[in-house]
Amino acid sequence: MDFQSVKPAVGVGRKIYIETYGCQMNVVDSETVMAIMAVDGFGRADDLRSADVVLLNTCSIREGAEQRIWNRLDELAALKRRRPGMVLGLIGCMAERLAERIVAERPAVDIVAGPDAYRSLPVLVGEAVAGGRGVNVELSKEETYAEISPVRLDTAGVSAFVAIMRGCNNFCSYCVVPYTRGRERSREPETILREVRELFDAGYREVTLLGQNVNSYSFGEVDFPELLRCVAEISPLLRVRFATSHPKDISDRLLETMAAASNICRAIHLPAQSGSSSVLERMNRRYTREWYLDRIAAIRRAMPDAAISTDIIAGFCGETPEEHAETLSLMREVGYEFAFMFKYSEREGTLAARTMADDVPDGVKTARLEEIIALQNELSLESNRRDVGREFEILVEGTSKRSDDKVFGRTSQNKVVVISRGDHRPGDYVRVRVTDCSSATLQGVEI
Ligand code: SAH
Ligand code: SF4
Ligand code: F3S
User: Fold this and answer.
1) Does the domain formed by 391-446 have CATH 2.40.50.140?
2) pLDDT tens digits for range 216-232
3) Closest CA to 432 of 442, 80, 315
4) What ranges do the domains of the chain cover?
5) What ligand 2 atom has the least distance to the C-alpha of 181?
6) Which DSSP state fits 13?
7) Pocket around ligand 1 at a 6 A CB cut-off
8) pTM for the whole structure
9) 168 CB under 6 A from ligand 3?
10) Predicted confidence (pLDDT) per residue in 24-55, tens digit
């Protein structure tokens, strides 16, 4: 080997800091980026102040998400003026969607990299350090970062996200994700199982398998129920969760697989988006209210103790007062434990933006969203009240935000329970009885 030709890795002596926005997939992506950068010698900065390279991992899902990032970018550009030599990068969905505009309008940005371009980040940083700009927003049909073990940024060491697939082929008419993340592709099962085994051996006690549409996972002979079964078999002491499920793909076989393994958590996030079949058709969700309710009934039959949560969009194109009322009635009928609720935000380039008018006035959207939130608060409180007096096993995650004398953990249903600290440590399983509740949390005692 000719040692003289070996260049020092660009990362040696440089520290990197990543600020993450958006969904859980972005959290794993930031951890994957850390792993890629570590190979090139980059260290991890504990805060922005000590960082040589600052990356914003961005989200485009709604206008508001992007606006926050534009504002943050301006703050960081100001910081960069005081710290010449700092490398500033934008990665993730907004980088993918708006690369040209970012390059044209934000000279302070040195790097722009889309979700499938992270392996090239060390090279892009090298280009930036040399005084240029590094841009790569190419989407891939194959990239799953399969063999990379993400560097976990959450230090509690109890629960980790594991990406099992990337991209989305569903093209819901309102959604930007198929454009920012490209086509759906599944990760090789052996690499997933290896990563989960490593996490368990390192003390982790919970994994959440992630994909935009996890239940359409498919690699060779292995489909999602089969993968889930294999992951759950790694240890009965490992809890397994997954997100997000699409209602059209939630099969009886998946429900049977869950019911047969007590360490697969009794919590299903099944975004409905709307309770009206006509709105669902305009959204291109490919199911009806009746289909959705049939799937809810199937979940209840297979696992009577399962918690069901959802995402709801208020004020989609053409939504009438009657259609909105159907969303409220669906929410009551299902009795969701929890929901993420949003006002419809038009996204350039999507089918809805191209072919439908964003015609529900903002004030009406806000009023409908408030009704939806108020109803969900009622439903969450009712659900929590039903748990008072019941017993659960919780996995302790950390110290309660409100009090140092208390710790919190989650039930299999993904509800937070706060108990006295005792000698409990993160990663312990504790049997508790619920004694009291609010709409957000349960209070309990060890039994
Ligand atoms: N793949 C997941 C979630 C994707 S994004 C799924 O299909 O369920 C998370 C949530 O953001 C969506 O479920 C939807 O409720 C919301 N969302 C997506 N695009 C939106 C838009 N243009 N306006 C408002 N909410 C949106
Ligand atoms: Fe977006 Fe629909 Fe894909 Fe979810 S399933 S990411 S809402 S296109
Ligand atoms: Fe946002 Fe991209 Fe996730 S748009 S919600 S970060 S997939």
Assistant:
1) yes
2) 999 999 999 999 999 99
3) 442
4) 3-136, 154-265, 292-387, 391-446
5) 6
6) T
7) 61-62, 174-175, 177, 212-213, 244, 246, 271, 273, 311, 313, 342, 344-345, 347
8) 0.95
9) no
10) 999 999 999 999 999 999 999 999 989 999 99
